[in-house]
Amino acid sequence: MKTIFITGASTGLGKATALLFHSKGWKVIATMRDVTKGSDLAKLENITVLSLDVTDPAQIGETAAKALTLGAVDVVFNNAGYGLGGPLENLTDSEIVQLFDTNMLGTIRVTKAFVPHFKERRQGLFIAATSMAGLMAVPFNTIYNASKFAIEGWTEGMFYELGLFNIGIKTVAPGIIKSHFGENAIWAVGEEYKEAFDRSMASFDFRSYFSTPEMIADIVYEAATDGKKQLRYVAGEDVNRHFAQYEELGRQGYVDQLATKVIK
């Protein structure tokens, strides 16, 4: 029986992924900051719920070690993260630092904790949840963009060093997911930016939701089981549509086109 270790598993994509892999016969180690939110998962056979704050390096080491006492881990899904939106000048330094600490450094820290285990076994797979905002910049989401672009670039670099030991690494990049992600996101939009912000939201049709957590969990399962050395899985009808246009027009062409809608 294979095992997946998941961060941010209390709600949304993390929880849906835990349930899907469980239904496929996997052992699941579902981690989250508040384990009381995983009480329903903990009732299921072969799901273990552990406490984990990915901004706490000491706890990461402790939780990884605890997970490995339960047996070998085959896949690590770095899912923990949240959104931070708004113009740069409207965000505080602490908000910016916390976002990077969770979305970027959390992913890197958890990965580092499991590299020795995967090296010893000479097998294993890391998957990170990135975003449409890690493939193409979404206006008024600059810090969130940067955190997800960073993980996309870091993953590409890690592909080579992990490959020396037959270890894989991939990203799954969703668009908008109908989940608590939007509710948990932090927004700070000053008055002088509001009209342009609304135009940007309308341009991307962010008022609608295109994917459920279960739909994206299916892509995570595909990435975990297809045996391909594929770096990125673009997940969701909305992101596929926008990203196809981005690739067709090229970076500058797409930016120029979007600017005509956002900048008046």
UniProtKB/TrEMBL annotation:
Record's keyword annotation contains Isomerase: no
The keyword Oxidoreductase belongs to this UniProt entry's keyword annotation: yes
Domain of life: Bacteria
Key words, A-Z: Oxidoreductase
GO molecular function: oxidoreductase activity
Family (UniProt): Belongs to the short-chain dehydrogenases/reductases (SDR) family.
Name of protein: NADP-dependent 3-hydroxy acid dehydrogenase YdfG
